[in-house]
Each structure stands twice: as structure tokens, then as C-alpha cells.
Amino acid sequence: MPTSNLSQQWFSNIRGDLLAGIVVALALIPEAIAFSIIAGVDPKVGLYASFCISVVIAFTGGRPGMISAATAAMAVLMVSLVRDHGLEYLLAATLLTGVIQIVFGFLKVGSLMRFVSKAVMTGFVNALAILIFLAQLPELNLGVEGVGWVTYAMVAGGLGIIYLLPRLTKAVPSPLVCIIVLTGLAMFLNLDVRRVGDLGELPDTLPVFLWPDVPLDFETLAIIFPYSLSLAVVGLLESLMTAQIVDDLTDTPSDKNREARGQGVANITAGLFGGMAGCAMIGQSVINVKSGGRTRLSTLTAGIVLLILLLLLGPWVRQIPMPALVAVMIMVSIGTFSWVSIRNLVVHPSTTSMVMLTTVITVVWTHNLALGVGAGVLLASLFFARKVARIIRITSDLEGGTRTYTVRGQVFFVSAETFIDAFDFKEAIDKVVIDVSQAHFWDLTAVGALDRVVLKFRREGTEVEILGLNEASATIVHKLGTHDKPGAIDRMLDH
Predict the structure, then answer these.
(1) Which of 8, 123, 195, 286 is least enclosed by beta carbons within 10 angstroms?
(2) Is the model's pLDDT at 160 over the cut of 90?
(3) What CATH superfamily classification does 391-494 receive?
(4) What integer pLDDT is reported at residue 2 of this predicted model?
């Protein structure tokens, strides 16, 4: 990497990156604990993973300023593996997840992001914003011990600090001020509120290198491979989508394939130091960007400060009130949601709005990002295919005993039936000319439609001539078509 580029990616925004990294580290702790609980493992598994992944991805990732750590999307995929086989198999699955992601990176799966439409991206963002907000509701449930009017007052005060302080000064990130002020108030006034320490024990030692204690045989591989493949796919999907969002927020490009490889290296490292698999976090990445983080230094700072907080400042970290972190995450939810997309529901084409809403509903309903994005991409593809199929136009002219059909547009599996229906097979005619110089044949269905048209005419004794096949269409027609092969009409009659 050139020296100038290295400096740009690391040291072009030192103050902003350091402060943003501190904010992110504070917000990572309760989430990592919560995700560990979801997966059914000790809190230190998620916290060690968040440290390892953040530090490693700072060097290996393809999107400067993006935060990666243990995530809910990955944790839910681990539940049955941990329940049925234990932590050691989870660590082995984490290693294999990293290997698969590295392979995906070299296969350039990051390039597939160009097939994800803007409507799907918007739906993805809105769904995550909703999920981030819903994840805060347990901390606002009056039925939970330690949650009362004081909690609501602190959340309101925290949001006031977050949104009003920037009007006075932007020297310090307002989320950081929110956490410090509310922690000070909670400790000084001894307020009865839930604190970080109530979520679980924090680790007080450095992570140590260990190799998963599992048999190295095909039986182990058969157990962990399905989980690893799912983790790899979901992790990369969330990471690449988040990278695209950070690209838009910062108006800077990223290397998606390098990010895929970097996620793999980070997960292998996490697995070797007792951590669970993780990926990019849209919530923490938005916190980082909105707090001033832009370069790899912010990601590295988040990981290092996280470890420092756990090892050296553990007693203080345990005193952080959950309402302070809830206020920060509500800010993230509000800032992440694309509010303009609501207005655009009546402005954009109905198909675009339907794709966006389908993505949102599927993700929120299933809590599965892969299913939501997959549903959105599939629906967008179907709408696109139908739209392209409507573009095909076929006109005909009769001159003497010859009728010329002029085909314009794309002939493929959706438009093939329209192509066939445009021809009049009942008309008594000596010769038919099919001019396809302004058309393109894409697939086996299109070639089959052309075969059917030609053979139908020839069966009635009509001479058929095809004009203007472009090179690509001619290649597929000659390779897959049957109308110019001996016995074609007899085979058609047999069928």
C-alpha cells in the first residue's frame, strides 16, 4: 500500500477517530454480552470476539471506519450448535467460517453487491433500524427489576444531550458526553437503574490462544459445516451491506472483496482466542461515523479501548447505566432509518415500494437478514424480468407472397410466450422472413420459442428465413436450436 494511502487510511482524522472509537467501545460491551446470552455462551466469548474482530479487521478489512464484532444475526445461528455440541464445536465452526469467507473473498463474491437494488438496500437499512429500536424495549419494560420512571427520565435526558449538545459544540461526540454524564449522575445519586454489571460478569484476563478441543475427523466436519456455511453467508451479507451504507454515509469507496477476506481472517483469529464468529455491525458503524470516525484507526481504537475498559476499568464500566446506552442506540435507530423512504412510497413506482416493504417485513418478521435481502432481490428480479419482457415488440409487413416479422427487444424465459403469440400460423403464405437484427436471444427458453415458430411455419409448407442474428444470439441458437437440424419437424410432431 503506498505511504500516502496508508496515512490517509490511518492518520488523516486522529482526534475524531480516537473519540469515536471510545464511544463505540462503550456501546459494544452490553451488546456483546447480550449476543453471548442469545448464543448460550459465557459473556466473555462475545466480548473476546468483539475485541479480536475489531482489532484484526482494522488491518485486514476493505472498509475503513466500519465496526465489526459479535452480532445478533450471527448469534441466533449458533444456538442449536452450542446447545447440542457445546462451546468447543462453536469455536471450531468459527474457524471454518473464517476459512469459507476467505475463499468467498478470493472468488470475488463482493462483486455481487451490484445486483442488490437500491430498494433492497433501503429496506435492509429500515429493517435494521427497526430491529435496533425493538432490541431496546426490554430495557424499558416496567416489569423488569430496576426499570421505572427514573429509567425513562434518564433516556429522555440522554437523548436531549445527544441532540442538543452539537448545537453548542462538536468538540466532543455527544453520545460520549451522554454516557459520561448519566454514569456520573447514577453513581453520585445512587439511582435505582439497571447497569451494565447487571447483564453478566465481565472478563478480567486477556484472551489466550487455544485450539478447539474437538476430534479432527469427518464427523466433526459434518456437524460444523452447515453452521459455518450459514454463518459465513449471513456474516458476509451483513458486512457487505453495511459497507455499502458506510460508503454512502462517508461518500468514499470500499473494497468489498478485501472486506470478505478480512472478515474471514478476523473470525479465524476470534476462534483461536475463545471468541464466537462475528461480522460488521450497522448500529456501531453508524455510531462511529456520526461520532466522527472515518479511518481504520477508529476501528482499532474501539477494539483496544474495549479491552482496556474490561481489564483496567471494569468496576467503572459495570456502573454505566443502561438508559445511557439505550439513548445512544435509539439515536442510532433514528439516524439509520431512511425517513424519506416513507414519503417516497407514493412517489416511487409501486414495484419499487413493494420490494422495499417486502425486505423490511421479512427481516423484521424472521430476524434473518439473509432471508429478507434474498426475498427483496428475488422480487426485484421478477419485477425487472417482467418489465423487460414487456419491451419486446413484433411488427409484420406483407409484400407479395412474403410476410416479414420484425422483432425488437429481449427474448428470454419471460417474453418467450409473447414472442410466439405474435406470429399468425393460420395465414396461408409462401414465405416468412423473421428479422431479429434488433432483438437478442438470451436463454434455452428463447431458443426453444424460435424453434417452435420456425417449425410450425415449415410444417404448413411455408419457407422461413431468419435475418440479423447478432453474434451472441447466433452462438446460442446454433448450439441449442433444433430447427436447422435434420428431422426437426418429425421430432416436433412426435412431441
Answers:
(1) 8
(2) yes
(3) STAS domain (3.30.750.24)
(4) 53
